[in-house]
């Protein structure tokens, strides 16, 4: 039975500043680094040694995976980076303070942008500070200017099917170090979470979600390794 661990990156600087981050490449805080290292300790205690690590192209996810593996004493695991595991693109909200945005647009509107499944924020205007069109990491790609969770799933799922699922079906154990919304998209797919419930699923920072899969990649068991910081999990399919 293959094992999959989903690891949301530790606290980032913009998490701390309560800003919409999305694709902006901010680093971890000291607390975020500690969360990543603690995640690695828990991974070692659980006896998990990944055959491959998948991560986004963003520093906070890559460093979380690296710090976790260093803390776990696991070396030389192949790492595969891909932008399709990036955080959700927050469009025109990128860089804004969440509290100030709520004061300007109203809490109800911001809640819809943040938490609805299929309503994206306003698009990011081209040519601004956070325009990623010229970023070499996305060269040749048709990148979005805003995303809902639904749109995020639509870019994550093809990558899951083409790159990650085959490794699991081959019996390899996989670690994905990524972001709250890209991991939420994977959880929605694996656990068949309804649209109206997935927006309430929270994945804690730095807390490994350990999932055992059957041959069809249907979860048969799942738990957070740090039980004190665990969130409620969706029910297992068929439970």
TrEMBL record:
Signal peptide: none annotated. The record marks 179 as: Transition state stabilizer. CDD domains: HP_PGM_like. GO terms for molecular function: phosphoglycerate mutase activity. Pathway: Carbohydrate degradation; glycolysis; pyruvate from D-glyceraldehyde 3-phosphate: step 3/5. It holds the Pfam family His_Phos_1. It catalyses: (2R)-2-phosphoglycerate = (2R)-3-phosphoglycerate. Keywords: Gluconeogenesis, Glycolysis, Isomerase. Its EC number is 5.4.2.11. It is an enzyme of class 5 (isomerase). SMART domains: PGAM (SM00855). The active site is at 9 (tele-phosphohistidine intermediate), 87 (proton donor/acceptor). GO terms for biological process: gluconeogenesis; glycolytic process. InterPro entries: His_Pase_superF_clade-1 (IPR013078), His_PPase_superfam (IPR029033), PG/BPGM_mutase_AS (IPR001345), Phosphogly_mut1 (IPR005952). Catalyzes the interconversion of 2-phosphoglycerate and 3-phosphoglycerate. Homodimer. Belongs to the phosphoglycerate mutase family. BPG-dependent PGAM subfamily. This is 2,3-bisphosphoglycerate-dependent phosphoglycerate mutase. The gene is gpmA.
């Amino acid at each position: 039975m293959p094992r999959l661990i989903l690891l949301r990156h530790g606290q980032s600087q913009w998490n701390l500043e309560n800003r919409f981050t999305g694709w902006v490449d901010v680093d971890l805080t000291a607390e975020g680094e500690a969360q990543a290292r603690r995640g690695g300790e828990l991974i070692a205690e659980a006896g998990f040694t990944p055959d491959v690590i998948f991560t986004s192209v963003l520093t906070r996810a890559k460093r979380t995976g690296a710090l976790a593996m260093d803390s776990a004493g696991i070396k030389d695991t192949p790492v595969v980076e891909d932008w399709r595991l990036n955080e959700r693109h927050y469009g025109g909200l990128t860089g804004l303070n969440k509290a100030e945005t709520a004061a300007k647009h109203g809490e109800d509107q911001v809640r819809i942008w943040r938490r609805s499944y299929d309503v994206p924020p306003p698009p990011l205007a081209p040519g601004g500070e956070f325009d990623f069109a010229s970023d070499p990491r996305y060269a040749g790609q048709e990148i979005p200017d805003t995303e809902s969770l639904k749109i995020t799933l639509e870019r994550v799922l093809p990558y899951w099917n083409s790159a990650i699922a085959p490794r699991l079906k081959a019996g390899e154990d996989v670690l994905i170090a990524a972001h709250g919304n890209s991991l939420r998209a994977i959880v929605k797919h694996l656990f068949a979470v309804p649209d109206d419930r997935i927006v309430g699923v929270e994945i804690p920072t730095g807390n490994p979600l350990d999932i055992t899969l059957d041959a069809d990649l249907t979860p048969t068991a799942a738990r957070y390794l740090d039980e004190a910081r665990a969130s409620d999990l969706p029910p297992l399919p068929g439970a």
